[in-house]
Design a protein that fits this description.
260 residues; alpha/beta; five-stranded parallel β-sheet; 7 helices
Amino acid sequence: PHCMEHDLMERVPGSYPDRKVQAAVIGDSFAYGEGIPREDTVSHLLSQKLPEVNFRNLGRPGADLEAARQQLGDLVKVPAVSSIIYLYNLNDVFPPGDRPPDMVMYPELASLYQGQTDALRLVAMARRLWLEWRRSELVTNAYVHRYKSPAARERLDPALDILAQMNRQALEGGKQFLVVLYPLLHKTAGGEYPFEPAHRKVMDLCREHEIRCVDGYEAFRADRSLAAYRSHPADSHPNGRANARLVEYLLSRGAVRSSK
């Protein structure tokens, strides 16, 4: 089993709360670090790379755009926090009760492999692979449809406009604001990333509203598969290796730097 216990409040102060420069990372379970230890989270890794800055971890599993806006609104009132990084997940535009299912199928057929003949194990494995492929296809179509279809525009554009509102609020409050689009950790069997249209939609909005945005997928573009970056085969959340790759990319781009 893949089990880890966390105290949501334990990570809030950051790993080095006594540092003079304070920043904050907001978002959903990708920002919080679902399924991984604190040492592997984006906030901790940034604090390690920039030893004069403490990055607070305000990630909340299940948070959507509206929750992120509320987080930012609270942070704008905190004088000690000088900058805010929003790790944006493609499902953030969907209310928690209206989100596509997780990208990875849980291995409920694994128990069939034990004590069975090679032929039966092969059949069970083939069925599981087909189910995962079919689920992956359905989830991919759900994301692409919600970002690109004409019918989605009526609800999607106002949702994405929240990013523009957050940017204005942060700047008016004297805070630096950065949106980092964290990719979904899935590529097709052919090595293609099927969510690029959704990424382009978000990046176009950032350019339109002059929001500082970084497309985190570029850090993983050269990888044919993203499976090694998941926290567990049955979980599509990023692991420490994925977060380290993203942090290195942000630093190489100069998107995150010390403000001292």
